[in-house]
Each structure stands twice: as C-alpha cells, then as structure tokens.
Amino acid sequence: MNALREGRRLEFDPAAVNRKGPGSWTPAMYAALYGGADEMRLLLEKGADPNARNDAGGTALMYAVDSPEKTALLLSHGADVDARSGEGRTALLIAAGRAGSSAVVNLLLKHGANPSARLSDGRTALSMAAGAGDADTLQFLLDRDADKKPLPLAAALPVGCARCFEMLLKFAEPGDLNSALTAAVRSGNLQMTNMLLDRGARAGSDLLSAVAQSSQPIPVDTVKALIRRGADINGKTSTGGSVLDLAKRQGPTALVDLLVEAGAMEKQPSSPPVAKPKPAGSVRAAIERSLPLLLRADVAFLAKAGCVSCHNNSLTTMTMTAARKSGIRVNEDAVRAQLRRVAAFLDDNRERGLEGVGIPGGSDTAGYILLGLAAGEYPPDPTTDVWAYYLKNRQLRDGNWGRQALRPPLEASDIEITAAAMRAVQKYGPPSRRAEYDRAVQLAVAWLEKAQPKTNEDRVFQILGMTWGGGSREVIRKSGRDLIALQRPDGGWAQISSLASDAYATGQALVALTESRALTAASPAHRSGVRFLLNSQLEDGSWYVRTRTLPIQPYFDSDFPHGPDQFISAAATNWASMALATAVR
To answer: Is residue 215 a part of any domain in this protein?
Structure first.
C-alpha cells in the first residue's frame, strides 16, 4: 500500500489483493486514490474484492470517481454502483459534486446508478452538479429524469455557471426564483440579480444584510428594486443590529446614503471605543509582544471551537514561521503541539474529505489549513494526501475554486480561495500522481493571471498565488505596482476603497509585496507601511480592526482581545506581525 502511495510501482505486490491496512483500507482503495488504471486492473484480475468496505463504509468505487478508467474497471468487475458510505453518499453523489466528472457520471448512470439518490439533508446528485458548475453532468442527470425537488437553481450561482442556471430555470417555481435571488445577491452576480427581479422574484426581508456585507458595490437602482420586492430596510441582523449598522461598517458608501434617505434606523454605535495605540520601541519588540498573545488564542480557539480557523490557527502558524526566519524566538514546543492538533482535526475528518463532504468553510477552510501546515513545514502524510485530493476535486473547470461563504474579508474572494487551494495542492499532492496535481496548479495560475481584483484581499492573494505557482513575472510586477499605488498617505492600505487604512490590509500588502520581490525592507513604501503598523499597535500586542461581517457561530471568548471583533483583529495581528518580520531580516 505504501508503494502505491509513494509511486514505487516496481515494489507493488499484487499478491496481497485483499489484505486490509489501517482503517480496513484495501489495496484497491489505495489504487483508487494513488494508482493508475494499470494497478487497478492488476488487482482486480488477481481477485481484489471491488465491494470491500473500510471502517467508514467507503468502497474503492467511491474513491475512483476522478478517473473514468478506474471507475469502468471497478464496474466491470461487479462494484455495487449504489453502495452508500457511512456519510450516506453513493459514488454518483460524490462524482456529481466534482467539476469535470461527467464521463464518470455517465458511466455510473449506464450501470444503473439511481439518478435521484439524495442525502439525509435533501441534497441530490442534481444539486451537487449545479454546485460544481458542471452543465454536462447536469444534462446527463436531467436526461435520466433525476428528481428536481428541491430545484437547485440557487446552487449554480456562486460558481457562475450560467448554462446550469439556464437549464434549471425552465423548471423553476416562484419559491425557486426567490432563493436564487438571495444567492445571486450573495455571490455579487448583478446580471442574474436583475434578471431574477425582471422575472418577478421576491426578496427575503433580510436580503439587505447580504447587500451590506458585499465588497463589490451593488448599484443603487438594483438595491431600490430589492426594497420594492420585499427587502426590509429596517430588518434586524443576527447580532441584533440593523441593516444600516452593518452597511456603515463598509464605510461611507452609496448604500448607506440610500438607507439613510429611505429612513433606515441605526441601532448600534458606529464606532465602538478602542484603546489608544502605544507603539513598541522597535520592530522586534512589537513582534515579541504579539507572539505570546497570538499563540495563546491559537490554542484557545481550537480547544473551544472544536474546529480549525483561518484567523486564529493557520495565520498564527504562518506568523510563527515568519518570526522564526527573522531570528525571533518562538515557543517551539507549543507551535509543534498545535500543528499536531490541527493535523489531528484533519485526520478525524478524512472520510469527509475523500467523499467531497468537506469541513465547515469548504475549500476555503481546507486550503487555508494546508497553507498553515505548509508554512509550519508539516510533512506530507496520508491525511494531507486526502485533503489535497479533496481540493483538487473541488477545482472548477476554468481553474479557480469558487467561494461558498460571504464573510469579508477572509471568505469573500474567489482569488484568495484559489491561491490558497492551489498552494495546498502544490505542497501536498501525493507523489504517485504528481503530474496530475501539477496540472491543477498550472490551471489555477493561468486563472489568477487573468483575474480582475477588486479588493485588497483580491490583490494580495493574486500576487501571492502567482508567486507561489511560478506565474508570469511581468503580470506579478504589474500587480505589485498596482498594489503599491493604492498605499494611503498614512502609509497603510485599506481593505476596500471606502474604508480607512488598517493593520489587516497593510500587513497583507507588505507580505505580498516583499514575497513577490516588488518591495524590499529598504523601499520607502515598505518603511512607510512599517511605520503605520508600529504606530497603530496597542500595548497588549494586538492590532484592532472592526468586523464588517456577521458571525456564523455563537460568541465565545478565544482569549484574544476586542470582544466581537476578536477574530478579524487576530487575523490583523497575524498579518501585521508577518509584515514586521520582513523588516527584521
């Protein structure tokens, strides 16, 4: 089995065809994940059981859905096409959720797979295909009269599959149009938003909360149309505030002016009191007083939340690595212990990765977790293999990874999620299938080179992604110049044009510009950015940034200051510390 994983074909022993390894995995399952069609054929000819199950209820067929050749071999040797795993998924449900799997889906359907199979939460193969943006798979399922209830019209919008949307629209009822309108607004798809409004879609009363969180301004006329169709200007957000409160967190915008003019009410103060900055005596001192705070919150978040976050965990690993490289002492025992805990979280969820179920936050969270592990020099192992496989199978046909959430700034950028996922695939793709994973990286880089950034998050991760992936130096240099041009007179950068400079955006910008060699520590723009960060740090070692999104979980204290603004402030403190580390080297 190790020979298969490591690509050592000559040491592969087909005699052990039905021997079970850890988790009751068989050689055929390993061949599905790591091998080629030749290895699978050899195992089956030697008597491998295509229906053997591991401890999670998985079969080789479920793990072979990214290969038409291996799928065909398993089916021809009697694999149960409708077998369900412990997660409740069939091979069809798994394949339908992977962009580019139409050939596999067609094979499964021809061998009798149930086109209307559904999960316990009601999702069907049709909804999986719409969410993957795979119109060919969608057509195969519709041709087999797959169950269209509930109609996944909204699922096609976040991934921008216009063809999928058009195919499903003919079956839509009023309720489907309404849910699709919400999805169109959340994904910033102005064309679809206006088209759905023209077709009579009604806006949910809380839809303006999504409008208020969007980093991409929605035209005033469209917002007015949403209000006429039911969006409530005085709707209450999940935190008890108003839409106007939330909109004001994006700064002075046309949306704020519209809401005020329409009589929207403010329920919470626009600017909560914040302690005055107290600069440290040096760059090194500023970093040294941040590290213990970040590490404490890193441990506390994982222990209290039971999951791994980008803001408290992955970014902190990246910060500790940056500090170490700059000659600043870090608590190595604590850092290594936390890396093991993060890896254990992934291992506990490995079957969810194999079957495309994922973890909360989907590809965005998985990509960021592996990004952190890579920064911490965590070695590749079977668990990281699984999550690289998960990410490769979530890549869309044009090369990007579409976001699923709307939580600016961390989870609101297709460019960010693509750069992080690409880096994860690049660092943790298994050796036995290196060429295949390298193609996924190249496809992502090509997409990043053509992407049109709109926010600081976009610009930073476009530069980082192209740099990591070996993109065009000409495009990287131009992107660097464009980002430098957005530096404010105070030395900082802003998340979006309507906001003031802050440590989150400034730290990110400096990290991207130095890593891509657009700036050096001696550059005037770099020195100005460092001064901004030094002058805005608080005495406790943190930088404060106010959140501009709504929480997805009940509030808890992660041992980081700033109450409900703790998560974005932790992220800001990480990016600021990483940026300062570039000035110490």
So the answer is: no
Smallest CA-to-CA distance from 343 within 315, 305, 320, 313 is with 313
- Residue 435 tokens read as 């060429």
Residues in the chain: 585
Supply angle C-alpha 237, 243, 249, rounded to 5: 105
pTM: 0.94
Are 197 and 230 contacting, i.e. CB atoms less than 8 angstroms apart? no
Query: What is the rounded CA–CA span in Å between residue 457 and residue 472?
Result: 20
Residue bearing tokens 């030094």: 534
- What is the CA 363 to chain-centroid distance, rounded? 4
Task: List Cα–Cα distances, 115 to 33, 72, 102, in angstroms.
Answer: 24, 18, 13
CB burial of residue 281 (10 Å; 0-12, 13-18, 19+): exposed
Which DSSP category does 269 fall into?
-
In a domain, 51, yes or no: no
The neighbouring-strand residues paired with 118 are 124
507 touches 533 (CB < 8 A): yes
Is residue 165 within 8 A of residue 157, CB to CB? The reply is: yes
Tens digit of each residue's pLDDT (9 = 90 or more) over 230-268: 999 998 888 888 999 999 999 999 999 999 999 999 887
What does the pLDDT read at residue 17?
Answer: 87
The domain tally of the chain equals 1
**CA 220 centroid distance within chain:** 30
124 within some domain: no
C-beta of residue 345 within 8 angstroms of C-beta of residue 384: no
Average pLDDT, the chain: 93
The Cα–Cα gap between 76 and 78 comes to 6
What is the SS3 assignment for 166? helix
**Could you give the residue ranges of the DSSP H alpha helices within 10-90?**
27-34, 37-45, 60-63, 68-76
Please, what is the angle between helix 220-228 and helix 254-261, to 10°? 40
- Residue 349's nearest CA partner among 334, 337, 361, 331 is 361
What are the residues facing 34 on neighbouring strands? none
- 372/105 Cα distance (integer angstroms): 34
Interatomic CA distance for residues 376 and 336, integer angstroms: 8
Strand partners, 124: 118
Task: Please report whether residue 150 resides in a domain.
Answer: no
Q: Which domain holds residue 542?
A: 283-584
Whether the Cβ atoms of residue 295 and residue 273 lie closer than 8 Å to each other: no
Res 1: pLDDT: 65
Question: Could you tell me the CA-to-CA distances from 347 to 90, 340, 344, 387 in Å, in that order?
Answer: 22, 10, 5, 9
Instruction: Tell me if the bond preceding 252 is cis, omega within 30° of 0.
Output: no
User: Can you give the CATH number for the domain in which 334 is found?
Assistant: 1.50.10.20
What is the distance between the alpha carbons of residues 481 and 518, in angstroms, rounded to a whole number? 7
